[in-house]
Amino acid sequence: LYRRTPPTIAPCALKSLVFNVSDQRILVIGLHSCGDLSSSILRLFVESQNVAALILFGCCYHKLSVINEEQNDFNEAFGFPLSLKYSELRFSRCALDLACHSNENYVMQLLTKVIVLLFRYFIASDDNASTLINSVDDEWRRLLVVHCIRLLFAPIVEHIIIEDRVQFLRERGHSVFVVPLFDPKISPRNLAIVAFKNSCDNC
Questions:
Q1: How far is residue 63's CA from residue 116's CA, in Å, rounded to a whole number?
Q2: In this entry, which stretches build a coiled coil (predicted)?
Q3: pTM of the model as a whole
Q4: Of 41, 50, 84, 183, which has the maximum CB count within 10 A?
Q5: Which residues, 6+ apart, have CB-to-CB distance to 190 below 8 Å?
Q6: Which residues have C-beta within 8 Å of that of residue 125, sequence separation ≥ 6?
Q7: Residue 177 in 3-state DSSP?
Q8: Is the Cβ–Cβ distance between 62 and 93 less than 8 Å?
Q9: d(CA 140, CA 146)
Q10: Burial (CB count <10 Å: 0-12, 13-18, 19+), residue 117
Q11: Burial class for 189, CB neighbours closer than 10 Å (0-12, 13-18, 19+)
């Protein structure tokens, strides 16, 4: 049995799709599951007796629903945090957006832009344009340095989000592994959460 769901499927529709399948051992695969879709898939894995295994690639962390600083109650309806271990942790929208970036791809983009800029400088003949470029060059360099330092924290934030999901499953007694399946230069979201149920009544 193979069923493909649309990327915009609602959590309730996703649950009914799986819960309506009887006497089946189901492997749920989420390829680049956007925002809260990842959280819904994880809850589906936990709640459905039919689901025996899970392979999940998350993405679009900036679209996760989060508990803001004014909210003190841990609510399982949010996309982050999911686990009890990280229930007190809060991430801002900027931090979640940062987790979406890829340092490997950014380095390649910078190298490409350097070549393009060198070519543009070579063919430039407008004195006014050269003056304008020189006037903002120092500020641009400072901004670039700050942005590069900021990007160093991107993998840390992403790993915390993934670890929260891993702990969510382990707290419920399931076997969980994180496996790098792709070259990060090809696909920045290359870490797969692979989970198996240690016991499944219907499997």
A1: 33
A2: none
A3: 0.73
A4: 41
A5: 57, 180, 181, 182, 183, 184
A6: none
A7: strand
A8: yes
A9: 10
A10: exposed
A11: buried
Cα–Cα distance measured from residue 198 to residue 102, given in angstroms and rounded to the nearest whole number: 34
Residue 43 DSSP class = H
Of the two residues 141 and 95, the one the predictor is more confident about is 95
pLDDT 10s digits, 84-139: 999 999 998 888 888 887 666 656 666 565 555 555 555 555 666 666 666 667 77
Burial class (CB in 10 A: 0-12, 13-18, 19+), 21: middle
Tokens 């899970």 correspond to 54
* Tens digits of residue pLDDT in 35-91: 999 999 999 999 988 899 999 999 899 999 987 655 555 555 789 999 999 999 999
Could you tell me which of 71, 24, 73, 69 has the C-alpha nearest to residue 49?
Answer: 24
Considering just the CA atoms, what is the radius of gyration of the chain in Å? 22
CB 185 within 8 A of CB 108: yes
Count of all residues that appear for the chain in the document: 203
Contact 192, 60 (CB under 8 A): no
C-alpha torsion sign, points 98, 90, 88, 75: negative
Distances (CA, A) of 134 to 49, 117, 121, 124, 189: 64, 13, 11, 13, 37
Secondary structure in 3-state letters for 178-195: EEECCCCCCCCCCEEEEE
Distances in Å between the Cα of 3 and the Cα atoms of 11, 18, 51, 80 are 16, 10, 13, 27
- Estimate the crossing angle of helix 36-47 against helix 154-170, to 10 degrees: 20
